[in-house]
Amino acid sequence: MTVVKTSMRNFFAHKGRMALSAVAVMLSVAFVCGTLVFTDTMTTTFDKLFASSSADVTVTPKKDDDAQETGRPDTLPEDLVDRLAGVKGAESAYSDVYDERVTLVNDKGENISPSTGAPTIAGDWDKGEQGSMELVSGHAPRGPTEVLVDADTADKQGLEAGDTVKVISFVATTEAKISGIAKFTTTNPGAALVFFDHETAQQRLLDDADAVSSVQLIAADGVTEKQLKQSVTAELGGGFEVRTKSEEADSAADELGSFLDVMKYALLGFAGIAVLVGIFLIVNTFSMLVAQRTRELGLMRAIGSSRKQVNRSVLVEALMLGVVGSVLGIGAGIGLAIGLMELMSLAGMNLNTSELTVKATTPAIGFAIGVVVTVISAYLPARRAGRVSPMAALRDAGTPADGRAGTVRAVIGLLLTGAGAAALFAASAAEKAADGSAFLGLGVVLTLIGFVIVGPLLAGLVVRVLSIVVLRLFGPVGRMAERNALRNPRRTGATAAALMIGLALVASLSVVGSSMVASATDELDRTVGADFIVQSDTGQPISKGAEQALADLEKSGRLEHVTDYKVVNVTLSLPDGEKQKTALTAAEPTYAQDLRQETVAGRLSAAYGENAMSVGEKFAEDHGIALGDELPVAFVGGESAKLKVAAITSDGSAVDAGAMYVNTATVGAHLPADRMPLNQIMFAKAAGDADAAYTAVKDRLEEFPQYKVRDQADYKETLEDQIGQLLNMVYGLLALAIIVAVLGVVNTLALSVVERTREIGLMRAIGLSRRQLRRMIRLESVVIALFGALLGLGLGMGWGATAQQLLALEGLGVLEIPWPTITGVFFGSAVVGLMAALVPAFRAGRMNVLNAIATE
Fold this sequence. Notes:
Blueprint: H1 2-13, H2 15-53, E1 57-61, E2 76-77, H3 80-85, E3 90-96, E4 98-99, E5 103-105, E6 120-124, H4 127-132, E7 133-138, E8 146-150, H5 151-157, E9 164-168, E10 173-184, E11 192-196, H6 198-206, E12 211-212, E13 214-219, H7 225-236, E14 240-244, H8 245-292, H9 294-302, H10 307-347, H11 361-386, H12 390-395, H13 403-428, H14 433-469, H15 475-487, H16 489-527, E15 532-535, H17 544-556, E16 559-573, E17 579-587, H18 591-594, E18 599-602, E19 612-616, H19 617-623, E20 630-635, E21 640-649, E22 661-663, H20 664-670, E23 679-686, H21 690-700, E24 708-711, H22 712-755, H23 757-765, H24 770-808, H25 819-836, H26 838-845, H27 849-854
Parallel strand pairs: 6-11, 8-10, 17-22, 19-21
Antiparallel strand pairs: 1-13, 1-14, 2-12, 3-13, 4-6, 5-9, 7-10, 8-11, 9-10, 15-23, 15-24, 16-17, 16-20, 16-23, 18-21, 20-21
């Protein structure tokens, strides 16, 4: 009980010093709890949506994973509705018509489908939709010239009843007026929805007045969904997909689960970084608190307190700090989750705060992380406090230095750093990316730990060099700042290490991102000969209408040629006896000009001959395929043929590496026309003026806004934007770790000022002005921040360069160091150090000289 009282007294006596550490704990816990609440809320939202939109049993066409992509949706005969309505246990049955691959266009010709990856779904306004949505204005669609849209899409795009929109499907383009607005009774996570009447939906979406997309059944009272499914399965036999409401919800949740898992673990990874950085702050805080209370701890030992009691006293303080920080962190985490939901809403995914889900495990995890991390972080300072002898403590206001421990620490740090460097070298020299990735991970961990441990040794060297460049310019004040930074290398190293971690990740990701852009740009310049590339950013295949528009431009002489690019599913019979389901890339012979693919045997143009094909280098090696071999090929949905291997392509390219090519004419000879897949992408070459041809292609495809027309400059810009957006998101998440690191600098300086109170008073007494004192503290902060930046940026560039060597194995062979970013981050670190010192410097400047001198 005495230990607890003593700990509580010390905790509240030093509550100001504990505040920043509590903030570090709070931020670490907040990120973890916020991530869990956010992903749990997303899961709850989607579960409710799936449950509200599914009938007791749903019947759909059986999916064929090997089926060719023809653009025509799978359907069921509509008379199946009456047949299933009479099965045992069914109260009623109704049909559903829908297509998830449509594009919605406003009256200005702009594509207003979601840009977040969520689908645009067109369907019929039937019993299923009426059960999960309600009309909020207007009326249901009546006839082929009216549609209903969802309220979220209407709000985002400024649509209202009476406006004209276009609904573009693979079957037809329909122009209609909005007859009404419907709102989900649950949350719409971001899809755009548009509804026709039943007959119009059949014609404009399925191109068949007697077809439907699915049949929904409602169970009679007392009949379970499983019993109804058994009756339906017995009635239909095979050839159909029959699922209960629970199975539909589970299937949808599984499809969504992979996306949520990636998001969840990515966010938790950044939370882990924040926790790691927070550990340095807490260790530093307690080390300094113990050092400042050495005389007090000595008195406790002198009057009978044991080492264990002193140790426990410090650990109890840490426990209290962990509890306070965790409570604040859990609350902040819920706030962070709400903020993320609002951010997702701005991006187009609607998440309602009424669905906020806080599971019982979330606060438990938050408390476990906050308390355990804090107590572990305080253990070493507590152990050090317990080892101070009473007489040594009473003689000295600081803990005695352990030179032997410092030497051992330096040796261990150098050994770990050397081992990490060796692992990074092994990664860069690896011949397989999988092997190199393991070495890269090991190298990152070992060099990070090594730099943290060897930080105090490096501080003595690097800070002196930085001082010559930065601090000596400020005369005696700069020299005093240098002396203060070097006074306790362990503290300086730990403070800089927190900043080092975040900046190392920023530097490594910048190098990888810049190298990817540079490599892809170089690859495009070397291999892509096409002037224009036409594709959908959402993965939709190219419709017949858009394909015909490009063909018309070719006939008119605006384009020299247009190249199809289709993916054809086949089964190959290989020389080693294996049968393998795979895909061939079907294209015209002009594709050899559009993509300058290198070969290791034969000529690529020969692969576009009659009954010929190419294979990739590794595929040929793995299966014993040689130039001139004939491979039996079974086209899914068509005939079988023997195709001669006329070329073996190099796997060194990042574009289409390993693709197997065949002429579209060869495919057409063995596949029925209605089984011919749609183009995934199309290429075109200008005839004459490229700028005029570019304008003509964009104008001709203006009625198909779901497709993007890009020249090579556009493609490079898109690539840079995509990687840039990803990096900006990562940098935003890493900012949390950097904020915690900045708090560490603030805390170190604040405690350092308290520790040097008497010294500061003496310096003021002999003539040091307040302005000079504040400048000294600011310069000390700047040099610590620059020290952390040098370590972090150097370490990060090493990681990034090694990662690029692994990417080179996948064809991305250009290493590019983003020097503007690296330089900006380095000088930005000086600004961060300057800002971190403002409050400690201000407090030091206000210190009363006589009181400071009288401080023990």
